[in-house]
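Board notes (copied after class):
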Amino acid sequence: MNPINRDTVRKLSRGLPGWPVAITEILNTLDDPDANYNVLIRAIQRDPVITARVLWLANTAALRGQREAEVTDVSTAISLAGVSRLRHVVLISSLNTFAQGAQVPSGTRFWTHSMAVGVCAEELASHVGEPVTASRALVAGLLHDVGQLCLYQADRALMQQIQQRSRTDYIDITLLEQEAFGVHHGTVGGWLAEEWHLPENMIDAIVHHHDPAGAPGSPLVDIVHLAEALTQALQLGGVAGDRISTLSTASCERLGLEWDENSRALFGRMEARTRHATLFFESLPSPTAAEHAHR
């Protein structure tokens, strides 16, 4: 097939669902806790699916406590669950719905892998204490493979073949994509991120997560790169038998990371939180059921 370029991606992106407005709003206020509260309310109330999921969360036994009455308003739900927890629900629910709308074949494990990398990036950002907020690292991790959605739009069967060959023959997927499309998913994801007006450091993280040497001096790039490597090493996100394709020692040095006995607690948090996130979102009402419950 003809090589994919920026103009091709712009056209292919029209076959993707609309970029969630909630994510853009939250991204613009990640460093402002007060603004986050108001933005969360607007983002939740705008989407009936997310509204139903948030109210469902607030009415679970773990959060209701001694409350007798059912929680029926978003403000009460936020006070019970907390801004940080509900921000996770809004971000991950929005991106999950976006990925489902792109109709990526379920066997690719695209969503579970993206969620695992997002959680690991968030934990890593908190661990190293770099000038990157944990929430921003979460979003960058969730979006790191977004370019694959566009490549599936270009040739679904070919992308499935590439995915399978990458796993069975242990070949870096970017090499196979480059051979087939003339470009790999990192570059494509960067073009998409530019179309969506995402922050520059997030664009860099998407473009260079397989090759952090391409953006030296960006802590977010290093964090997302290492988060994916750790996701593979710990076999998180439903990719059993996976192995690390690349791990940049320079990224480890820039972040001041040493893999010693003290790393076990970090790995434990990554495993526990990824498992919890997977179970939690599997237990959420489906979009159809959520809309019905909200009505």
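Comment from the instructor: The mean pLDDT is 83. The chain has two domains: 1-15+105-257, 17-101+285-295.
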